Amino acid sequence: MAFVGKKFPNISVDVTDKTGITKKINILETAQKENKKVLLFWYPKDFTFVCPTELHAFQSAMADFEKRNTLVIGASCDTPEVHFAWLNTPKNNGGIQGVTYPIIADSNRNLSSQLGILDITNERYDDETGNVMVDGDNVTYRATYLIDEEGTVFHESVNHMPLGRNVAEFVRLIDAYTHVQKNGEVCPANWQEGSSA
Amino acid sequence: MAFVGKKFPNISVDVTDKTGITKKINILETAQKENKKVLLFWYPKDFTFVCPTELHAFQSAMADFEKRNTLVIGASCDTPEVHFAWLNTPKNNGGIQGVTYPIIADSNRNLSSQLGILDITNERYDDETGNVMVDGDNVTYRATYLIDEEGTVFHESVNHMPLGRNVAEFVRLIDAYTHVQKNGEVCPANWQEGSSA
Amino acid sequence: MAFVGKKFPNISVDVTDKTGITKKINILETAQKENKKVLLFWYPKDFTFVCPTELHAFQSAMADFEKRNTLVIGASCDTPEVHFAWLNTPKNNGGIQGVTYPIIADSNRNLSSQLGILDITNERYDDETGNVMVDGDNVTYRATYLIDEEGTVFHESVNHMPLGRNVAEFVRLIDAYTHVQKNGEVCPANWQEGSSA
Amino acid sequence: MAFVGKKFPNISVDVTDKTGITKKINILETAQKENKKVLLFWYPKDFTFVCPTELHAFQSAMADFEKRNTLVIGASCDTPEVHFAWLNTPKNNGGIQGVTYPIIADSNRNLSSQLGILDITNERYDDETGNVMVDGDNVTYRATYLIDEEGTVFHESVNHMPLGRNVAEFVRLIDAYTHVQKNGEVCPANWQEGSSA
Amino acid sequence: MAFVGKKFPNISVDVTDKTGITKKINILETAQKENKKVLLFWYPKDFTFVCPTELHAFQSAMADFEKRNTLVIGASCDTPEVHFAWLNTPKNNGGIQGVTYPIIADSNRNLSSQLGILDITNERYDDETGNVMVDGDNVTYRATYLIDEEGTVFHESVNHMPLGRNVAEFVRLIDAYTHVQKNGEVCPANWQEGSSA
Amino acid sequence: MAFVGKKFPNISVDVTDKTGITKKINILETAQKENKKVLLFWYPKDFTFVCPTELHAFQSAMADFEKRNTLVIGASCDTPEVHFAWLNTPKNNGGIQGVTYPIIADSNRNLSSQLGILDITNERYDDETGNVMVDGDNVTYRATYLIDEEGTVFHESVNHMPLGRNVAEFVRLIDAYTHVQKNGEVCPANWQEGSSA
Amino acid sequence: MAFVGKKFPNISVDVTDKTGITKKINILETAQKENKKVLLFWYPKDFTFVCPTELHAFQSAMADFEKRNTLVIGASCDTPEVHFAWLNTPKNNGGIQGVTYPIIADSNRNLSSQLGILDITNERYDDETGNVMVDGDNVTYRATYLIDEEGTVFHESVNHMPLGRNVAEFVRLIDAYTHVQKNGEVCPANWQEGSSA
Amino acid sequence: MAFVGKKFPNISVDVTDKTGITKKINILETAQKENKKVLLFWYPKDFTFVCPTELHAFQSAMADFEKRNTLVIGASCDTPEVHFAWLNTPKNNGGIQGVTYPIIADSNRNLSSQLGILDITNERYDDETGNVMVDGDNVTYRATYLIDEEGTVFHESVNHMPLGRNVAEFVRLIDAYTHVQKNGEVCPANWQEGSSA
Amino acid sequence: MAFVGKKFPNISVDVTDKTGITKKINILETAQKENKKVLLFWYPKDFTFVCPTELHAFQSAMADFEKRNTLVIGASCDTPEVHFAWLNTPKNNGGIQGVTYPIIADSNRNLSSQLGILDITNERYDDETGNVMVDGDNVTYRATYLIDEEGTVFHESVNHMPLGRNVAEFVRLIDAYTHVQKNGEVCPANWQEGSSA
Amino acid sequence: MAFVGKKFPNISVDVTDKTGITKKINILETAQKENKKVLLFWYPKDFTFVCPTELHAFQSAMADFEKRNTLVIGASCDTPEVHFAWLNTPKNNGGIQGVTYPIIADSNRNLSSQLGILDITNERYDDETGNVMVDGDNVTYRATYLIDEEGTVFHESVNHMPLGRNVAEFVRLIDAYTHVQKNGEVCPANWQEGSSA
Fold it and tell me: How many structural domains is chain E composed of?
């Protein structure tokens, strides 16, 4: 079932950043309390090639998101310790040094399993042991969620593993949604801020 | 559960076009037999304001999709008769005259319910009558699926009702995915065809 | 189970008319509050050939129904937007311009599924996806309900898809039922108002 | 669920006529084997006032049905013995002497319960005794079925207890349906044989 | 399970008599309130040959039952209208004109199904339709119940369809039971009132 | 459910007689193989007062039953040993010395529980022990069955504990049933052999 | 499960004796209220050969049990009437005249089924009739229970049908248990009262 | 349920003896193959006071059992190692040195749980852990089984923990049963070999 | 599931020692009330070869454990009586004379089944008897638990039957854990008390 | 349930090493095919402080394990990419550069969930979403398994998170087990290779 038009899941997850401190964050409550939009993007794994490119692209656009009252949050199923190690690895070594937004460490998959974006397939219940065996690495696809100030999801998308995202498109979607919030108009296709609807 | 990384549902649905003839189409089989990519986009209802804008935008980009070996298919839960009436309504009367791609008429919701993109919520079973009552119009969100030549979904996204789509972004995603198919490389964020990865 | 002798289902559905405004209507409550009889007739789809003929026939008899204290309501599973487009299509273009009674837009099938008049058959539960697949267009047969001032159904009939209705017969049934209401007599076959029972 | 568009139930029931002989009849098979249409009408009880009026009305129109290749069959839940007694009661004593078509004696309710036209309501399972108690006389409403030569129902209607039927309307429906069978056209509202569609 | 030694079922059923008026009767309450014994006898169908003979035999013995403080009640599954027609049919036409005791019209089988005396066998549940099909006419065997002033059954018997009852035997059983009620003695076989036990 | 019109239960039970030898008897098979009618009568307990009276009464009528091709069989839930002791107890000591017909010893209640004539009521399942506790002595009422040469029950009756049976009535029922077997006529009430039906 | 070490079942059963009066007895309560031990012995059937021998043996040892504060109670599944007849049958006729202790009449098997000592085996549920059929006579084995003043079972034994009991052994067990009660010592094998443990 | 009259459980258990060698024994098969009777006696625990007394008593009577073709087998839930240690402990140290018959080591309770002679009570399922907790030491009562050459149990008894057994009584039971086997007679109470039955 | 990081099971079990007195001990409560660590070690069986070696090794290290505020408790599934016999058997006879710490007697397996360290495998439910049969001796592996002053398990290990334990390793683990308790540091591998972490 | 005495789970998992290549390994098959012992040790997370200490300690002892025919395998729930990054981080930066044994990347928890060593607790099923929420990081405790050449586990242990392991102890356990394999002797406590058992 699509999350669009519904509230984002109401649960707390671990999040860390370049300070190396790990806290709990509840995205639904954060959007509502801080009265901000949230862009949440998931990537499969730390310490891979395509992922840092995306993470740096979101970093480069931080000013664009801030002036649109939008928090940027990254997320993967790695641990806070691994996030911290990666945050301390220079960009030219494949690291993400310089990233300032927080990154969720969903190692227990509480949030990603609820969103249904894990790459596991073919669950098999083993009668003998009572365990469940799966295919796949149990990491997330490249899923992105845009959430408004009331915690409602207004866009969700999932890209296959090897396919990077277009940061500018998310800026456009935020602008278009903000336009609807302000003007109550329905926003036509290919709409750009400043153009006449 | 995300459809990305999995085969598109293997079912046949009614589809019509400007000829007014209604046929059956199985998107999975079509992609595989014709060895083409498919862009399938859903909109909520015929004869509304924002929808025709999107439908015209896809029509304008038909050449771009064709040269990328990509079929464009529209879809809503209206009947073939309604699609045909709308296809015969001039653009300046709010119609979609001029649209040449086929439009699915999923009036029995066989496909949209399987994709999980209907706006119904709060299902209530009525013990007395044995019927199920729902909230919502039972029409679809603005969902988009990119499917490759093997029938595998490589992108899916859902926009909230009032939020139009950006046709150029889908062209970019097709190019990026094609690049990966050809070069086996992972495609970084914000990638544009012709730029060096 | 027949609805005759029972109250009409107590639920609200969307209804629109030539003004293009969509409201909620609860037929049971409307009959009781306005102390009127109701003739509710269902047709399969907007923008088809036989249907407008029936809709125009009911329109032509509006004076007959009004002087018998009877509301006429049309109904199909199309959306309010499609009803409005059809209401604005001239009669000689296959439209129903000129129709003044309201038309129910049961796009979520809340009412038609409760009445059991949808043409879907052969429901199949898909174990793998948990979805239900059906045969048929999920639109209604030509069903007609006559409801009295207390909301009780006193006649129901269903015609196969290609078979039009006889408006005069419904007038006769209303007259006969009204005769029984006034005179407490049982009304013999082929009874006509003014004839001696 | 409506029976229109489906085959009539495939079961055998007792039927008798003025000869007093009781046989089994399977309406579905009869229509198919004899290649005839069937008009089946149900009435609540033998030896009541309004019922014989209807039964005589159908008798008077026998020639009309015969020339339309249509069998007329009456039906109630009384026994063959009671039907026979009523068939031997003169018309002016409230009897139906003179009726020549067969009358079904559905005393075990095998057919009427399958059609869902019994007036019983409010079934209550008695835990102590394991029996089911009902409200109502367990007799049928005034239901009418038109069945074609393949055994498919093309019209069904149910009138409340005190409301007699219009024999001419059934003749009209048979003619309209026959017109569709012959001409493949959809038959508009208020259609009369001989008028141009 | 035998009803002997238990209270008669506590339910109300329709009863009529030669006046043609239909009322409700609860046999258990009637016995207790009027402080009378009750003889309740069931026969299969109105308007058959053997049945009127039995009904006349009970009529002839009415004085014997009255002086023993015993109500006589007949019963079948025919409707009150049919009972009334039969009560108005002269004896030499196979009718029961002259019968003065009331006759239960158990057309909904509420009482006869609880007593387990219907001739239906071989119940088959039809999975497809959810209906139950039976063999047999769904009418009663020749069952007789003797009920005392507290509503307790002290004799029950069932005869096969073609086998008439002996009214004198029921008089004997009532006398024997009354003897036990008065004298507290156990009544030996073949006992006759006035003989020494 | 009545056993009338159905085959007698097809099971074997212990039976003994004045020889003291215990055998198995299957009443259904016996009737069929020996081509005889059977009168089976149950009494509550050996060594009580009213019972021997009944047993002697059946003994006195043995010639009447024999010339009507009818086997007489007594039955209670006592053991064969107790039957034998009672059969050897002189009549004036409360015994049944002189009885020549066999007596069933249904100590395991296989047959009486299937006939539903045991006086137990109010079964209570004890969760702790998994046992069933009952009220009542678990002995039979005074039930009588008349069975024809094909094993079909044509009369059944149950008398309350203190109420003796009338042997002559069973002779009458056998004669009446035999009359029907021979003449195919339905036998009217109060019928006596030799009278004109 | 063994009953040793647990309380005897807390239920009331019918008991009679040479006076012919039938009462209720609850062995658990009797032991506790009268502060006595109880020896309860079961035998299969009245009026058999080996059983009276045992019953006389227990009678002969009554003085031994009385001076050990122990009640002796016999038990079978026969009725009180049969017990009374046997108690009045002279010893040389195979009776138990002279027996003074009470004998339980467990005709409804409430106690013996709870003790699990009935000889029935191979229970078969008959789906058609809903009855349970068993093999065996549904009488008890030769089971013996020794119960102390608190109602706790301290010995239980079961002998196969043809195998008589040794009364002296039960006297020994009572003495040994009493010795333990008084001295708190554990009682060695083959212990005899008066010997040094 | 009593085991008397049924086959002894058909399972293999560990058994050891003074040689210290542990083997498997199946008592049912042993009795049948060696054509011998078996006396199996259970005691609660090794290394207690009362138990060795019983074990020595059975040892002293070995000649009596052997000449009656009867195997003697002891049993407890201790391990073979503990049995061996006890078999090597001198009698005056509380050991059972000198015992020559085998002793079952039912440490996994496979046999004792099937016989229902463990002292555990009050089983409680712990929902949280999925374990079962019990009261009691999970050791056996003093149960004794006499089994014939076909493996059928002909005596079973259970003594409360502190109550020793009488070896002579088992010799008597074996003699009595053997007498029945030879003579087909039923053996009266208190019977002794050599006395006239 | 590992017990490490969780509280030790909260149940009471029997424990004895060289005094031969048997008490109840709840290890969780003991650790908490006495504010001590606990080393609990399980061995398979009393009176075997390898086990006493381990038991003597723990005894030799008692001073080391005491100065570390740690209670040592042994455990097996033998009874207290067997433990006592073994504690009184001299070391050179294979006994454990000289052992001063208490030994749990888990004969009912309440604790060992909850810990999951019994050697039973292959549980088979016997439908006929309702019993569970197992493979294995139902004794424990060589499992060891280290529990802190709050009752939390901080180490658990299981050795296969023939494999003895290293007492010094448990001393090292206690020291390392105590170091963490005091210093809040994480303790590196191969850490020894006094070395710098 | 302990794994000791049972085969190691038969499943394949991802494993990587300093070459950065990821393969599948099935430990059970590896032990059997290569005829080697396996030491498998789990640690919670890459890029933490205590873990690298343990990993270096196992590396230092590689020669000891090799000469004992034992494979060393590390394991955590991090991905191969993270393992590779850590393997390339110098020791003095908290990395594990220099480690040559392979490290399992159980990111889908297929193996660790089967071993029951994940730190998740308190699973809560969310009825609304159908998801399971857990407490804990879903990483493993410090568990160690010693597996023999047939794939049988002969030692398992789990240390709480902050508690490092003693490599020498595992060497001792391997030596002791090898001694038993060669000599068939049971190995006493504190045993050291070369000492006399």
Answer: 1
